[in-house]
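Worked example

This section walks through a single chain of length 133. The input is the sequence exactly as stored; nothing has been trimmed or padded.
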Amino acid sequence: MKSALVTCLFFLGVAGSAAAQRSDRHAELPGTGEPAENRVTSLTRDMSGKLQLNEGQYIKLRNINRIKLAQADEIQWQYRDNSSLRQAKMAELEAQYESECSRILTPTQLSLLRNEQPQDEQPKSDSGENGVG
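Given that input, the structure is written out below as tokens.
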């Protein structure tokens, strides 16, 4: 009986250690989890207000936004040291996102979305990299 209790305690200790290591891994790799629910909700609500989405469109777009944000976080993490590859992957993600949106939104809504995107996604210029040196 004692040996069974000791064995059980041993396995619980090993399982607890493994769980702690997994949580440490997620802390080290911030782009591997799901995006924060409030980010998804905020983005989708903003789009709903601007594009006048119906309930079905809102639900579908919310799911697509969740996927997009998770993939964007992953790209930012994976390619943090290679800005040109990161920009290419982000452009590819945006193309996929627009393709998915075109399946859900009406042509008018899609036009409004395209008009809003360039304002939101202006590349930030680095004042230190003007080519003069």
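What to look for: Residues 2-28 form the longest helix (27 residues).
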